[in-house]
Amino acid sequence: MGRANGLRINCRTNGRLPLARSELPIDTVALARYLIGKVVVRELPEGIASGRIVETEAYVVGDAAGHAYRGMTRRNRSLFLEPGHAYVYLAYGISHLLNVSSEMPGIGAGVLIRALEPLEGIPIMRLHRRAERLRDLMRGPGRLTSALRIDRRLDGTDLCREGQLWLGSDDHKSGEVAQSIRIGISRDANRLLRFYLRDSPFVSGSRSLNR
DNA sequence: AGTGCGATTGACT
DNA sequence: GTCAATCGCACTA
């Protein structure tokens, strides 16, 4: 900790503070929109790595595409925690996907983090993602967890507290938030539950989808 | 105990 | 544009 302008500053995390749970929207769609521009912070032995959220998807209550649709199971129980907890699962046996739980405790719903704009610790991300173009480093839900080394061990993490993985406040002002249908699902496929920064080069999805 | 299937990615035509 | 990799887990019996 250091001191500047009479305020206590957390040097370790560039003065960024965790989101307060009380400020998180409980509603899943509101949370998906709210999280655009916020920062995912990963604390690793090598140092801090972080990225600004530029794309999310809402998996709402009663959503046939949501993992909580058929009730609580061993895998999806983190979705039923109070807002601001991590739900991490393995997709296609290949990619870990990071979600933020939403809704009141006992209600299963959440927000998928689909893309991040790299901020701090880019060399740390490249340790596992080779000499990839900056633009592609965390463009996609499986890529960002790979870059930040997020896996099932972080399932259930409280993201509103500093630790191995947490959510920090906005890095700077965000641009226009647009919405579209969600990517890669078949059920409830026509709902506009994907949110993204329209002008960000760090979002996934095709040109036509992002227009 | 066996089966089928992804909220994806990277390699390749 | 197409397609296979790969595995934890939910579901059925």
What topology emerges from the helices and strands here?
Blueprint: E1 2-4, E2 7-9, H1 28-34, E3 39-44, E4 47-59, E5 86-91, E6 95-101, E7 110-118, H2 122-129, H3 141-148, E8 165-168, E9 177-180, E10 194-197
Antiparallel strand pairs: 1-2, 3-4, 3-8, 4-7, 4-10, 5-6, 6-7, 9-10
The structure holds a DNA duplex (13 and 13 nucleotides).
How would you describe this structure to a colleague?
- It is a single chain.
- The protein starts with a strand and ends in a 14-residue tail after the last strand.
- It is mainly beta and 211 residues long.
- Strands 3, 4, 5, 6, 7, 8, 9 and 10 form an 8-stranded antiparallel beta sheet that branches. The chain has a two-stranded antiparallel sheet with strand order 1-2.
- Helix 2 (122-129) packs across helix 3.
- Helices cover 11% and strands 28% of the residues.
- Strand 1 (2-4) and strand 2 form a beta hairpin.
- The chain binds a DNA duplex (13 and 13 nucleotides) through residues 57, 59, 65-67, 70, 73-75, 89-95, 97, 99, 112, 114, 140-143, 146, 152, 182-186.
Features:
single chain, 211 residues, 8-stranded antiparallel sheet, two-stranded antiparallel sheet, globular, DNA-binding
Distance between the termini: 44 Å
| Sequence of secondary-structure elements | EEHEEEEEHHEEE
Helix content bin: 10-25%
Q: Mean pLDDT, nearest integer? A: 92
Radius of gyration based on Cα positions: 16 Å
Structural class, please? mainly beta
Total strand segments = 10
Number of helices: 3
How can the largest sheet be summarized? 8 strands, antiparallel
Q: Tell me which oligomeric state these chains represent.
A: single chain
3D shape: globular
Low-confidence stretches: 1-9
Share of residues in strands: 25-35%
